[in-house]
Amino acid sequence: MSQSGHRRPSLWRRLGTRARAWLPDYLPVAWKMALVFSALLLGGMGVLGTWLLNNQLNDMLNQSQRYGQVIATQLAYGVKEPLLAADDFTLKVLLNNLNSSGDTLGAALYDRHFKLKERVGLLPTDINPAQHGDALQWHYNDTPLTTYFATISVEGHVAGYAAVSLSRAGIVAAQRDARRAMVMATALMGLITVLMSVLLSWRIVKPLRALVAATSAMRAGKLDVHLHNQSNDEIGQLISAYNSMARGLLEKSQVERVLSRFVSPRVAAQMMADLGEVQLGGREVVATALFADIAGFTRLSERLAPEAVAEMLNCYFNAISCAADFYKGTIDKYMGDCAMLVFGVPEADEEHQYHALCCAVMIQRLITLINVERQKRGLVTARFRIGLNCGPMLAGNLGSQERMQYTVVGDAVNLASRLCSMAEAGEIIVPDALVQDTNVASRTRCSLAGSVPVRGKSTAVVTHRVDGVHGSSENQMTQRITQFFLEQGPPPPAQRPPLRSV
To answer: Domain residues for 336?
Structure first.
């Protein structure tokens, strides 16, 4: 332990840190598994092959040594009598006969004092059987030779020594061939092992690759990807869990998409994000409410068939929805021919007053252009009146436990509704307090509309008629209106609106 109290990293950890520096940032699991399988199998085959090769080489060497010892022993046995009788001629004949055979390259006899008596063929010079033991390995002109020694015993006494030289070229060649064959077999099996490891690894990780592709598609918003599962292991369980999760997310997305058609997309997203928290209740907020309805709708609806009324309302409400989305408004509800919009809830917006005014102006511009198109096609047109107001109001889920609705209520909302009913066709009426706001006054063009009594108010409410907004806002509005009509595409063929049957 060092003085700083930190233990020095181990050798394996340091080696692992250095090895990771050489690895790429991304290494597929299939390659990792293939490398591990190949390393284990090649290591095992290498150890097994080395063991088998060593055993085979040792067996070949032992067999060669036994053969040499047998020849040397036979020579020692055959020269006993001539050696005791000092028959040098017979000894020389025996040695020459032995040396003339194909396996023996040399032979020699020594007396018990290690003095050379007879010698033929190849033998190392100045050898002493007592010093070299049973055998001596040496070379002659790059030819490997081995000289074997045997003791000549007569009635338990040493009478001399016999020496026989044999070539090791055959055994060396056999060992070389065996080593080459073992290496080639190991290399071939290693290649097969590597290929099988790669194929097995890719087969194992194939469902994982499909899972990665499916999760990438899910991250991109494609939730209808279903993985086919044929595994009964942990990977199969993982794929089943993914399919269940994807099915749940798809169902949630479908519910949210359908729900957003009945309530504001922002409200739908908020409800789907906290399903367990959807309950009755509200909170006081400062927001802006906008009401827009059709002037003289009762007379229009009396002379039109229900299908024509529905077509007309859908056409105009589509434009109102476009303006609300562009200025961060939320469509609270549709009430017959009236649309109620709120700004500043459920998502906070510091400029909800100004955005509500811009939305009102954009709605009137859209209605005017839509009426021009409808007149060209011979369809019934309508004009809207708009009233809006800002102030404290209660926002939340109102209704009953079985059926509730996210909405806003309060005196400020009621005043916006009454201002809408007081406005003329094509007008936008707002209270004086709204246009006097420092954040709105410099960016709004309006004219005094007069003071009107409002039921429930002790004093008359001073109102203004909004004519337009700041120039930069007008430019952005014009661009969005142009885009809206481009998105609508060419109008359908002109046709007369069906009348209500009498």
So the answer is: 278-488
